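Issue 218. Parser rejects a valid record. Input:
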Amino acid sequence: MTGHGAAVPDGAPGRAANGAARPGAGGTPIADARTALGLDALRVPMPADLALRILERAGVPEREYDRYALVEGPVTGLFVAYGRGAVTGAAPVDWYPDPAAFEEAYLRRTGRSVLRTGKPLPGVVGALRTGRDRMLRYDHGTLTEAQWRVLEAVRAIPRGQLRPTGWVAREAGLPGADQGELLAAVRANPVPVLIPVHRLADEDGTPLDCGLPAELAERLRTHEGIDEERLDRFLAAGTHFLGSDTTRIFCYPTCAHARRITDRHRVPFGTADAAHAAGYRACLSCRPVAA
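Output the parser choked on:
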């Protein structure tokens, strides 16, 4: 199944029109440190966190800059930036040709320098491993309150499950929001993969990619156990909800409870109204309708 949405990295690598790196503002703290120490001319390999060590030795307060680490994710490596105890940005490593390009894009987006460290923010590794990030804090930067409420709703979608845009709008407290506005907020996500936009679906249940490359979004869903071929079969049959004739409860097809319904007890529904008319109650876990 092919998702919707173009891949739009959060800032392309900083290059001038002729392909050369921009001088001055286009430089990065690490690149500047290399030049100042003469390491480029000597071709001496520089430790990844050398610029950070220099600032620490010089007594520069941590509030003057952010940090980032290269963290191994479930299907791709991620640059994960943080400052003041909160995640401030993230990006798949293949969005940038090298760490310096990520640093430059981060500076343009946030107005803050970011220096590499070997120590990710506590909780990040576990969040990527389990797909659950509830212990992390995020700095939403310049996002509006409505945008961040949308991303908080996306953040609440459980690992291995999908939720439609209408569900996200309802959970965000924006029931009248236009789908285009919702998707724009999702594409503004400064921390892809950590906030799982790959778990978002269209109203008919079709997965949406929302700024992630389609191949990466599909790999993430597959890693989490989302069977897109099974979803295709349900969608082709007009099935958007699954009920159990033993519990008389109906769910979204990817809900953990729906996946446990055996074939003989599974009852398909095209709409929530049809499920209600048949005497079924909405699942309290996946909440297919408002309480």
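Fixed in the parser; the record now loads. The radius of gyration is 22 Å.
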